[in-house]
Amino acid sequence: MKTPPKELLEVMRRTARELRSSLERVGWLSKGHGSPIPERNTVIHIASALRSKGFATFAEAQIRDGKKVGAKGFKKIDLLACNGELTFVIEVKAFGRRSTEMIMSDIHRLQVFSPHASEFGNHGKEIRGKTGLYLKPNEFWEKSEKWAVVVVQNSSKANEDFRNRWIRMTRDCDSGKRKGMFRKLCEDLDRYHAVSGGEKVLGEDYWENTRQLDILWLAFPLPVKSNKKTLS
After folding, report:
1. Measured between alpha carbons, how far is 228 from 139 in angstroms, rounded to an integer?
2. Which domain holds residue 205?
3. Closest by Cα among 152, 139, 119 to 12
4. What is the pTM of this model?
């Protein structure tokens, strides 16, 4: 299990803190008994936390050579962030009823991700030296350390127990302690050298018919090309 970048830990803590602040100020604006808030709320707070750490962000980044999915268009990921040396590719899911298949689908999507970038026009080439634009599309991708991150916005009863088990999940993979969905996830995560973590957003019910809320995450390093060039 590889140690995740400290920037990821800091971003997840800030995301949970600021999402809690937003909810406390405007309320839980999703109708229904225990309805999760839309996952875009977590996406925008992750993006905000990343921007505060100096990352450039891009939402709905298209996967290079990704197949078209009916009327929904081409396959995409929720968020990409890069600071020149480190790149995160992020998928976010909101669920109350837990789904191992849903999590593994996102993991497989991120595992094969490579960004689909447009070629620079003449103007882009001319101003590259002044602005630090990369010499060619996806050069940031080729030169950076890359991490895939699956974030689960979890609203559930028995939240604290589940959050603690999630955080311990990748640590317990070889100990025989995992059970249920954790056992199935660990069987797949072993080969990714994944690490898991989590942050509490709301630890108790604030509004009628709402549930507690956690931000849980899984992160694993993506392959890095050995012929990496030095940033100029």
Report:
1. 10
2. 6-221
3. 152
4. 0.83
